[in-house]
Amino acid sequence: MSNTRVPPEIWLQIIRLATTIPTFSPSQHVPTFSPFDLRRQEDTRNFETNYAQSLASKRSISLVCKCWRYLVFPFLWEIICLLPGRKHHAIGSTLQRYKTSIKSSLHLEERRAGEYVRAVHILEEDTGPAHELYDMANIQRIINCCPNLVTLTAPVKWQLYRRDSHLSFRPATSLREVHLSTMDEETIRGISRFPEQLLVLHGSSVEIDDGTHYEEMILPNVHTISMRLSDMDDRNIFAPSLSHWIIHDNIIGIENYRAYTRHASLVTSLELACSWGDRLSLQYALAGMTQLQELVIHIDSLCVSPVPCCLPQTVRRVGFLCPYSKHEWVLNTDAGTFRWFLDHLEDWLAIAIRAHETLELVRFLDWPAIKLPSSSLEQRRLFYSKWWSEKFDSYKSFGVKLQNQLGNSLCIDFSDSSID
After folding, report:
1. Which of the residues 22, 66, 99, 153 has an alpha carbon 20 to 30 A from that of 401?
2. Higher-pLDDT residue of 275, 269
3. DSSP 8-state code for residue 32
4. How distant is the alpha carbon of residue 2 from its chain centre?
5. Closest CA to 308 of 263, 341, 267, 354
6. Which of 149, 154, 87 is nearest to 119 (CA)?
7. What domain of life is recorded for the organism (predicted)?
8. Quick check: 260 pLDDT over 60?
9. Rounded mean pLDDT of 160-168?
10. What is the C-alpha separation between 277 and 274, in angstroms, rounded?
């Protein structure tokens, strides 16, 4: 059967199924993200691999014939990933071009490549300078070519120190997820004119004019916010549907933030990517979150904040984030730092086990397994292994699951680890 006898809609569906990146297919609905969603976490970890494989699949499909090349064209440009230190001139030029037209045989609308772009992800490399320069001029050009954006994301701690480096564009009504810190004031005001469209909001370092008063920005359907408390207060943001809250910077004096008093009772999932300075600040923050079910703590081996006295009775799942590289480093560093980290981890695991009557699981969200100190530190290696074995027994006796990032039982990796 000739390809052209099959309705174009069928071929488009086949191509979509063959090339979609799991969980990252841009759509008009951006689901609430739970840090304990195993499939979403796996797709996040494997995004670069999935993205590369997806592009390879699309390229292979485009080589089948002229018809398939035409059909796959929109899918080639659905998601664009931009790295720092790269020039993006070629991308901007391509997005402005028209695709090859064979309308007479398929009766499909002719559109520019940029009109098919649904997501732009500005990525941050794992290595290199913390604030490596981005090719902002061409990123601006790319954004201008994409009138149907659904998602615009940037690194969590995105910082642009010059006002003329902010992006300026007319937000599409299709926009569902956005990083405010990338935008100038006029663009942010444009978003506030269609507040009911937005579902996910990022902005850990929003620049605010001193003394500027902003009208209340009510975002009725936003379910996820990743921002500093001070930025939410300064920006006068209210999200009555907020359920997943990622707080950056610090929560010292949290009782004085309007953002907290307005949203605390709404939140079911809290992620603390911040420090809190003293035990009382965290205890106060948790006490006001009467519907909290998920709590994620970022453990920084060099910046340890006190643990609370207890967890809210509503909490069912506790997660810890401690980058594997930092974990491996702290195991092999000086004895004082190792002991400091171990005591902190001991406190958190003890607090969690006290809530065993309501707690379902504790998960280390970025650990595939427990690394041990290098074999050159034999006594420390034996001590750490025994310490974890005791934790396994304790958690098992109380019926609380202790899991790795894959949702499997946490276990010890006995292979040797060494730090250069």
Report:
1. 22
2. 269
3. P
4. 44
5. 354
6. 149
7. Eukaryota
8. yes
9. 65
10. 10
